[in-house]
C-alpha cells in the first residue's frame, strides 16, 4: 500500500499520493513519521484515533436529535448524510478525524458517493481512511446496492466450502478492485471468526468455516486479494465471535471459554494472520473465564494489552467494532467508553455515537493526565505506519 497524502507542516514538506494504494515514488521512513507526529497538535493526533460516520460532523443539533432525524428519514437531514456541507467542513477543522466509514444512508448514487469521498479527502490534512463493510455475501454495502451493478462474490461460507484458497483470493481481489475504483482504501473484512455455534445469529455464513485451519488459510488468501488491489484489510472480531448466540449489536454477550480453549480454536486464524493483516477489530464480547474485569473485550486492558499485545505479540493497529452497538452504547457513557478503549490498548475508536463528545473526552483525559500524550503517540505512530505502508 503506497503512501497517503501527508501535510508535514513542521518541515514544510508535502508528500502527496492518491490515498492508500495510490502510486508514489516516495518512501516515508520511521524518522519521518516521528517528525510528522512531532509537528502535529494534540487535537490532530487525537483525531487520528477515530473513524466516524461523516454525518457526525454535523453539530448544529445534538447527537440524539441527529439520530432521531435519521431514523425518521427526515428529508431535512438528507444533505448531511450524502454531502460534506460547509458546516461539516468547519467542524472537521475543529474535530479532525482519522477516517470515515460509508454506510447505505450515505449513498444515493455512484457519482454522488465518489464526490463525497473526494470531498472528505480534500477536507482532511492527513488523507483519511475511507472505509466500508464489504465482506461479500449479506454484508456488502455496494454489491447489494442495485445502482452499482456489481457482482456479489457470495458468502464466505460458500467460498470456504470449496476448500480452494484461490476462490478466497479472487473474492478479495474482486472486492478490492471496485473499492479502489470508488476511492476506498480500507475494508472491514475479512471475518476471521470460526463458525462453531450453529445457533449463532451474528456470524453464520459470514465465516469461512468451522475449523481453524480452513478459516486461517482462507483469511490469508482473501487479504492477499485485497492487498493486490491496494486495499487495507481488517480481520475481525477478536478474540472470536463464532461461538456466541446473542448479538452485540443489541446488548451484552458473554463467552464462557477459557483462554487455553480459545488458543486451541478461535484465536488461531487471528494469530496466523498477525503479520498479514493491517488491522484487528475487537468484539464487544465479555470473556467471563479469561478476565476478572467483566468488561467487553473492546474495553478490556486484560484482553487487548495483556493478552493480544503482550502475550501474543501483536503490535499492529487495533480498532474497535462500532461503538454505537448496544453492548457498548447501552452500558457505557459515550465519552467514557472512548477513553476506556484507549486505556485498554485500542488505536482506533470506530463510530462513536457522538463524535465531538468522545473527542473532547479523550482530549480532557490527556490534559488531566489520565492518558499520557506518549500513549496517544503510540497509536498515531501505528496508524500512520499503515497509512504510509508500502
Annotated CATH topology:
TIM Barrel
How many runs of DSSP E, i.e. beta strands?
14
- Rounded to the nearest angstrom, the distance between the terminal CA atoms is 5 Å
Any idea what the CATH architecture is?
A: Alpha-Beta Barrel
Mean pLDDT: 90
Overall 3D form: globular
Say which CATH homologous superfamily is assigned.
Glycoside hydrolase, family 3, N-terminal domain
Query: What class do helices, strands and sheet pairing give?
Result: alpha/beta
Q: What low-confidence regions span 5 or more consecutive residues with pLDDT below 50?
A: 1-19, 21-26
Q: Helix segment count?
A: 16
Summarize the structure.
The protein has 390 residues and is an alpha/beta fold. 40% of the residues lie in helices and 11% in strands.
Describe the 3D structure.
With 390 residues, the chain is an alpha/beta fold. It is built from 16 helices and 14 strands. It has helices spanning 30-39, 42-47, 63-71, 78-82, 86-94, 110-122, 156-161, 165-182, 212-228, 259-263, 268-271, 301-311, 326-329, 334-344, 355-367, 373-387; strands at residues 6-8, 13-15, 50-52, 99-101, 129-132, 134-136, 139-140, 186-187, 234-238, 253-255, 279-282, 285-287, 317-319, 349-350. Strands 8-5-4-3-14 form a five-stranded parallel β-sheet. The protein has a three-stranded parallel β-sheet with strand order 9-11-13. Helix 1 (30-39) packs across helix 16 (373-387), helix 8 (165-182) runs parallel beside helix 9 (212-228) and helix 14 (334-344) packs across helix 15. It is globular, with a radius of gyration of 20 Å. The chain starts with 5 loop residues before the first strand and ends with a helix.
Amino acid at each position: 500500500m503506497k503512501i497517503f497524502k501527508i501535510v508535514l507542516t513542521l518541515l514544510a514538506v508535502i508528500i502527496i499520493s492518491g490515498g492508500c494504494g495510490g502510486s508514489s515514488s516516495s518512501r516515508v521512513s520511521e524518522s519521518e513519521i516521528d517528525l510528522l507526529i512531532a509537528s502535529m497538535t494534540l487535537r490532530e493526533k487525537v483525531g487520528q484515533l477515530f473513524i466516524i460516520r461523516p454525518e457526525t460532523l454535523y453539530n448544529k443539533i445534538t447527537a440524539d436529535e441527529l439520530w432521531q432525524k435519521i431514523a425518521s428519514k427526515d428529508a431535512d437531514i438528507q444533505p448531511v448524510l450524502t454531502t460534506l456541507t460547509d458546516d461539516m467542513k468547519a467542524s472537521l477543522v475543529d474535530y479532525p478525524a482519522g477516517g470515515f466509514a460509508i454506510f447505505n444512508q450515505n449513498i444515493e448514487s455512484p457519482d454522488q458517493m465518489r464526490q463525497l469521498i473526494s470531498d472528505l479527502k480534500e477536507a482532511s490534512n492527513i488523507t483519511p481512511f475511507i472505509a466500508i463493510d464489504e465482506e461479500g455475501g449479506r454484508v456488502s454495502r455496494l454489491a447489494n446496492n442495485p445502482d452499482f451493478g456489481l457482482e456479489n462474490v457470495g458468502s464466505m461460507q460458500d467460498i470456504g466450502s470449496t476448500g480452494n484458497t484461490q476462490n478466497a483470493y479472487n473474492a478479495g481481489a474482486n472486492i478490492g478492485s471496485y473499492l479502489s475504483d470508488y476511492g476506498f482504501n480500507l475494508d472491514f473484512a475479512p471475518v476471521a471468526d470460526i463458525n462453531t455455534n450453529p445457533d449463532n445469529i451474528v456470524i453464520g455464513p459470514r465465516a469461512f468455516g468451522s475449523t481453524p485451519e480452513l478459516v486461517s488459510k482462507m483469511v490469508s488468501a482473501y487479504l492477499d486479494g485485497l492487498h493486490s488491489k491496494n486495499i487495507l484489510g481488517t480481520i475481525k472480531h477478536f478474540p472470536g465471535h463464532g461461538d456466541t448466540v446473542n448479538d452485540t449489536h443489541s446488548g451484552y454477550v458473554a463467552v464462557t471459554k477459557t483462554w487455553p480453549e480459545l488458543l486451541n480454536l478461535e484465536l488461531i486464524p487471528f494469530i496466523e494472520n498477525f503479520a498479514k493483516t493491517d488491522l484487528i477489530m475487537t468484539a464487544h464480547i465479555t470473556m467471563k473465564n479469561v478476565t476478572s474485569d467483566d468488561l467487553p473485550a473492546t474495553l478490556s486492558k486484560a484482553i487487548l494489552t495483556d493478552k493480544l499485545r503482550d502475550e501474543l505479540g501483536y503490535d499492529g493497529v487495533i480498532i474497535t467494532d462500532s461503538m454505537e452497538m448496544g453492548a457498548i452504547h447501552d452500558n457505557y457513557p459515550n465519552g467514557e467508553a472512548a477513553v476506556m478503549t484507549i486505556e485498554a490498548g485500542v488505536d482506533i475508536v470506530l463510530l462513536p455515537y457522538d463524535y465531538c463528545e468522545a473527542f473532547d473526552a479523550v482530549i480532557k483525559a490527556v490534559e488531566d493526565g489520565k492518558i499520557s500524550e506518549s500513549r496517544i503517540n503510540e497509536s498515531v505512530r501505528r496508524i500512520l505506519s499503515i497509512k504510509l505502508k508500502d
